[in-house]
Amino acid sequence: MSARRLDGARPRAQAPALPAPERGRVWEVFRRDRAGAPFEHAGSVLAPDAEFAEAWAREQYGRRGESAALWLVPRDAVHVVDDWADEFDLKYRRVDGYSIKARLKEARERAGTAGAR
Amino acid sequence: MNERELLGLADDELIVGWRDSEWTGIAPMLEEDVAFSSIAQNEIGHARALYELLGDDADALAFDRPPAEYRCAPLVQLRLPDWAHTIARRWLYEVADEIRISALRETLPLAAKIDREERYHRMHAEMWHERLAPTSQFRAAVEELWPYALGVLPAGGQREALAARVGRPVVEAVERGTHLDELAALWEEMTMVRRSAPAGAQW
Amino acid sequence: MRDEQAFIEYVQGGGQVEAGDWLPDDYRAKLLKFVEMHANSELMGVLPEREWILRAPTLQRKLALTAKVQDEVGHAQLIYRVAEDLGKPREAMFADLLSGKAKFHNVFHYPTKTWGDVGVIAWLVDAAAIISQKALLRCSYAPYARIMKKICWEESFHILHGRDVILALVTGTPDQFELVQEALNRWWGPLMQFHGNPIPRDEDPMWFWRIKSQGNEEARQQFLDGYVPQILELGLEIPDPKLRRNDDGVWEYTEPDWAELKHVVTGHGPRTADRLAFRARFLEQEQWVRDAVLAA
User: Fold this and answer.
1) What string of H, E and C letters represents the secondary structure of chain C?
2) For B147-170, what is each residue's pLDDT tens digit?
3) Which of A78-87, C13-22, C102-111, C179-188 has the lowest mean pLDDT?
4) Backbone CA torsion sign across B162, B167, B173, B176
5) Do the beta carbons of residue C117 and residue C183 sit within 8 Å?
6) Euclidean distance between CA atoms C84 and A18, whole angstroms
7) Is B45 near chain A, with CB under 8 Å?
């Protein structure tokens, strides 16, 4: 007997909700400008398999020597995450959750260091 | 490789690059169109580098000889406006080219440089060969071009190596030195703008 | 957000949307038509220049022109992908292009007659195109805006190449100078029509939806501002006696032939039929290749 899922059978993998090509696969292309740079999404190619995707992405995104490396990922292998709950105040986890000016001023006055800087 | 043979290699690269550039804009798939154009440009780049070894003016060697003085193999002279033949030629040419470039690497530094770029041509050719080999169109094209392909290499060990790699027997080749009418037609078009101004004009 | 009014306010406020977002029907339709025409234009634009790849007079020009045209095909690929992700399959777009149902820009319906055309196209037609393309860099549809960045970056070398070709000709023999002047005489009309007839901003759906950030007339004025001085400083003549910049800095010119533009763009240009037939022939001839490659 299987227990009912807590999350009500939410689908496990969600690829981008985009039209699928009639034939072939969409391969997302990520490129890195130079060593040390992050990979950035650059576009996509329509190709039957990884070999063709590579041959084609090489030229489309690298014939000018403009890319140090490419990552090719079939679009249907991408898992999209685009929703978060934002119900309660989470500012304590961020820099903008803190305003120290007033208290710092008071602390300096008490310590006699106000105006010393 | 002597100068005459080097000229043959340069002329091969020039003419096959010219032929391959005819596919710009009309290749079977957009992505392939872009990739194929790079191959054509690379071939012409190789030709230029080889002409520069042979003389002061690469353009003069590339354009200013009459058709009968070109030393290119008949394989590259053929006009092949269909993909099966074009890819069959690409594949046969790359296999032959690898054999002769390997033989050259010890004596010619430029050969090693060319070879490093040709590696990607070979990957591309092999990729297409694998996909199209089961088709009748491709097999027929290879059959037709085989005697021409043999003519890219000198008779003897290199031709035998080619035959072994392609899996076909050595047959009577269409030899280098044969000039097809297609070459004259190509030359006419290739040189028409250049010939429209006096020699030495700038472009 | 599935509220058309909220969407309008969002994009008019500078907001961008992504592939897969909900889009109002009118926005999606207008966007797709615009993108499709752009993709078709890049692809058809290859054909007038392709002939000259085979006739380039030096190895350097051969390589540069081949690379330029390769870029156009690459741009077509980028733009078709945007349209595909908007829901129209590539095969359907090719079918509509070849049947005449979908359009491409006027300049690509005209013949190229000499090496002078090669220079004029790379220098001036590409310049006119870049102005339009820059107006798309902040397109409300983000996937399109992003590819325009790559496209504009690649186009920058095309203009330099074009200008270099022109400069070599205008400093060459008198016959070579004449090649440029003669080509310019033929291309000036289509160039002036290129950006389209002026549309008041409040009647321009491309502005309403923030697909384009610049109107047609603004683009044309920008072209004239940038390129008339460059043309004249080479000693070339522009075949429009009325062309002048008035005291307000606005260019006045002979009214372009809008009837000709409409006639050409609806498929009746001098080379429209045979260029479409040429593409159709190869597309059909190589159908078996796509079948062999794309088979699962």
Assistant:
1) CCCHHHHHHHHHCCCCECCCCCCCHHHHHHHHHHHHHHHHHHHHHHHHHHHHHCCCCCHHHHHHHHHHHHHHHHHHHHHHHHHHHCCCCHHHHHHHHHHCCCCCCHHHHCCCCCHHHHHHHHHHHHHHHHHHHHCCCCCCEHHHHHHHHHHHHHHHHHHHHHHHHHHHHHCCCHHHHHHHHHHHHHHHHHHHHHCCCCCCHHHCHHHHCCCCCCCHHHHHHHHHHHHHHHHHCCCCCCCCCCCEECCCCCEECCCCCHHHHHHHHHHHCCCHHHHHHHHHHHHHHCHHHHHHHHCC
2) 999 999 999 999 999 999 999 999
3) A78-87
4) negative
5) yes
6) 9
7) no
Mean pLDDT, residues C237-255 taken together: 97
Structure tokens belonging to residue B37: 């154009």
Q: Are C48 and C111 in contact (CB under 8 A)?
A: yes
| Model pLDDT, residue A91 | 78
pTM: predicted TM-score of the whole model, two decimal places: 0.94
Q: What is the pLDDT of residue B10?
A: 98
pLDDT at A88: 81
Q: Pick the residue of A60, A61, A78 with the most C CBs within 10 A to test the interface with C by mutation.
A: A60
Identify the CA nearest to B99 among candidates B82, B115, B83.
Answer: B115
- Token readout for B133 is 């080999």
Alpha-carbon C176 to chain mean position = 27
First to last CA, chain A: 71
Q: Which residues of A touch B127 (CB under 8 A)?
A: 51-52, 55
- Max CA distance (Å), chain B: 51
Residues 6+ apart with CB under 8 A from C217: C195, C198, C199
Is A26 strand, coil or helix?
strand
In degrees, rounded to 5, the angle at the alpha carbon of residue A33 between the alpha carbons of residues A27 and A35 is 115
Q: Copy the structure tokens of residue A52.
A: 């063709």
Interface residue A97 vs chain C (CB under 8 A):
no
Cβ-based neighbours of A77, under 8 Å, separated by 6 or more: A15
Nearest CA in chain B to A48: B131
User: What is residue A99's predicted lDDT score, i.e. its pLDDT?
Assistant: 84
Q: How many angstroms from the chain centroid is the CA of residue C292?
A: 33
Q: Residue A102 belongs to what H/E stretch?
A: helix A101-111
Q: Say whether B34 and A59 touch across the interface (CB within 8 A).
A: yes
Whether the per-residue pLDDT at A10 is higher than 80: the answer is: no
Q: What is the pLDDT of residues C273-288, one digit of tens each?
A: 999 999 999 999 999 9
Please state, as a whole number, how many other Cβ atoms lie within 10 Å of the Cβ of residue C36. 23
Mean pLDDT of chain C: 96
Q: Do A21 and C87 touch (CB under 8 A)?
A: no
In which band, very low, low, confident or very high, does the pLDDT at C215 lie, cut at 50, 70 and 90?
very high
